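Why should sequence recovery work at all? Because a backbone constrains its sequence more than one might expect. Tight turns favour small or flexible residues, buried strands favour hydrophobic ones, and helices have their own preferences. The token representation captures these environments compactly. In the example below, the structure is given first.
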């Protein structure tokens, strides 16, 4: 499994954000952003704030649990949602994005995020997790 750091906040924030990816800039997360460019401003504002203050200091209408049993959360940006989970207190891993269609998060999106989370922690445990560096980090 591979993860790639995403930086929305230009200064050092309280939280580091990563996306599970196939290769550099190739993930369900990146595909979602490309497909929904119209909502990019609100999505990026949510990511910037999350990176700046961390998940515990964001208001409920911007970040909250969608599956408390499996510790799956979402970042809210307008009509769009980004599914994620935490690895400790300062790392948030994004699995994918989806448009908001109703008050309830679709079960398929919860299952997808949980599956990716399980694979992530398995790869971390087995020391097979690889981090892809961004150009600005190299």
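From this structural description, the recovered sequence reads:
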């Amino acid at each position: 499994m591979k993860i790639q750091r995403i930086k929305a906040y230009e200064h050092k924030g309280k939280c580091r954000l990563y996306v599970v990816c196939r290769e550099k800039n190739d993930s369900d997360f990146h595909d979602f952003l490309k497909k929904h460019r119209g909502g990019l401003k609100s999505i990026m504002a949510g990511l910037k704030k999350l990176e700046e203050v961390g998940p515990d200091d964001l208001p409920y209408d911007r970040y909250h649990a969608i599956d408390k049993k499996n510790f799956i959360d979402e970042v809210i940006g307008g009509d769009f949602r980004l599914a994620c989970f935490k690895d400790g207190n300062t790392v948030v891993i994004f699995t994918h994005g989806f448009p908001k269609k109703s008050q309830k998060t679709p079960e398929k999106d919860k299952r997808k995020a949980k599956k990716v989370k399980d694979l992530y922690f398995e790869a971390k445990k087995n020391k097979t997790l690889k981090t892809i560096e961004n150009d600005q980090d190299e």
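A few observations help interpret the result. The helical segments are 28-35, 40-53, 107-125.
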